[in-house]
Design a protein that fits this description.
Length: 344
């Protein structure tokens, strides 16, 4: 009997259906059984059913604990923002690493785990005008999400032997970023075996480019994480191959629910043509499988995907000739070979 897990799958728009099919091809090749519970988050269904779709999605995710989300059109609302708010997903983990064989302008190796507080900063307040010539917005930093993100970052450091760098503008934003660094330091003291250093965020950007090998896990506030993630993806060669975990925690800092997704959107220009690159959703799926405790299977999914890309087996966006389907089949076969699973 294969170990069995239930997973909520949030279906999306554009290339979403092709990506879902690719994930199922891969899932069928694994030595574990995944029972996917689909929820239709397409724009059409959201418009037809309104809030009920989100109620259904939230109830299912709370039950299955883990969810895989496909890209969705942001129209009246952003489904990611709605789910983040309703599930209290306070932390985003975005691993970004150089993929051998993927062309890039950057010549160095990069392997970063960006742990970002997903709420607050300057993003929760759109600001307001003051007369004709000025505007103001609030910058919000709260102890709880910072502590959750810090605990997650340091636990990751403990598990992987990696060091943690916290970065902010604590010298200028003394109250907000000062609180962030104080909480990071307090949590660091509970993980004495995990090296911790502090950087000013502007200096960090320069140092990541000059000496990327010095940085492993980087803990940052919301907007800094947003900037750093895109810069790191650019250095790694593509904004399109990033994947994230969106995490909510219980009072003892254990992951309560986790939603995994690709960083890219619905790619309407290539939808339905078999051109979608499933790399990002596969990397997101690998993180999900890791969260289920299936570390070896997660590692096999990630390394098989990256090895094939390095060997030149790629979709067209990365200069190859594979279709979504043929790339997915190749990864599935490689994973099955590595894990000795037959796919049944
Ligand atoms: P996009 O990421 O969908 O597309 C940008 C470019 O990258 C396009 O040329 C597209 O073909 C290409 N691309 C994206 N993913 C690809 C993949 N897997 N394989 C090959 N090529 C890929 O960004 P865009 O055009 O700004 O947004 C399109 C729609 O996606 C919008 O409605 C937006 O709201 C939504 N969106 C949804 C997100 C989500 O659900 N998490 C995130 C970002 C955008």
């Amino acid at each position: 009997m294969r170990p069995s897990y239930t997973v909520t799958e949030l279906l999306g728009d554009g290339i979403g259906p092709e990506l879902s099919k690719a994930v199922h091809t891969l899932a069928d090749a694994l030595p574990i059984h995944l029972d996917f519970r689909p929820i239709d988050l397409s724009l059409e269904n959201r418009r037809a059913r309104g809030k009920a779709v989100y109620d259904e999605a939230v109830a299912s995710i709370v039950q299955t604990i883990v969810a895989l989300k496909h890209p969705t059109i942001t129209a009246e609302e952003s489904p990611n923002a709605v789910l983040r708010r309703r599930l209290d997903l306070s932390v985003i983990h975005r691993p970004v690493s150089t993929i051998p064989g993927v062309p890039t302008n950057f010549r160095r190796e990069l392997d970063l785990d960006i742990v970002r507080i997903a709420t607050g900063g300057t993003y929760d307040d759109p600001g307001r005008a003051i007369g004709e010539d000025g505007a103001v917005s609030l910058r919000i930093v709260e102890r709880r999400p910072v502590r959750e993100a810090a605990r997650y970052a340091f636990s990751l450091g403990r598990r992987t032997g990696k060091r943690v760098t916290s970065a902010s503008k604590y010298t200028i934003q003394k109250a907000t970023d000062g609180l962030f660094e104080a909480v990071a330091k307090e949590v660091a003291s509970q993980y004495p075996e995990v090296p911790h250093s502090v950087e000013l965020f502007d200096a960090l950007l320069g140092k990541v480019i000059m000496s990327p090998e010095k940085f492993q896990i980087v803990l940052v506030l919301n907007e800094y994480g947003d900037f750093l993630s895109d810069m790191a993806c650019g250095l790694a060669g593509s904004l399109g191959i990033g994947a994230s975990a969106n995490l909510a925690f219980d009072a003892s800092a254990v992951v309560r629910v986790a939603m995994y997704d690709a960083a890219h959107g619905t790619a309407p220009d290539i939808a339905g043509k078999g051109l979608a690159n499933p790399t990002a959703i596969f990397l997101a799926f690998a993180m999900l499988v890791g969260q289920l405790g299936e570390t070896e299977v997660a590692q096999a999914i990630k390394s098989s995907t990256l090895t094939l890309l390095g060997d030149g087996i790629r979709t067209r966006d990365l200069g190859g000739t594979e279709s979504t389907e043929s790339f997915a089949a190749a990864v599935a076969a490689e994973v099955a070979k590595r894990l000795g699973s037959s796919g049944v």
